[in-house]
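Async update (no meeting this week)

Hi team, since we skipped the sync, here's where things stand on the single-chain job. The sequence we agreed to prioritize is pasted below, unchanged from the tracker. I ran it this morning and attached the output directly underneath so nobody has to dig for it. Comments welcome in thread, and please keep replies under the output.
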Amino acid sequence: TESVIDAEKSENRTHLWLGRADGSRRFQLTRGEKSATSPQWAVDSKHLYFTSDRSGKRALYRIAVQGGEAETAFEWKGGSFGSYQLSPNGKLIAFRNHFATFGQGER
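Output:
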């Protein structure tokens, strides 16, 4: 991630970048008014998952490493969620729930 400072709005945003392990061929993967944080590789190594408030509420997004538009992968309707971990096969997600009480959100 790399921070972007917007002096007009007095805020700091972070966005995701990709590059080779030797530091060459870097390019910005995410852009926009909201930060992109907590990146994790997908099982297929062709996508990255990350969290953002870009829809007005924290959600998990998936974006192709070749670029393109991010798509919503997970949004917890019972409140906001904290850290997350994808399962080794990529079919499940474990996450920390911040606000909802157990049994109140959609699964």
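Quick observations from my side:
The chain has no helices and ten strands.
The first strand starts at residue 2 and ends at 6.
Reply here if anything looks off.
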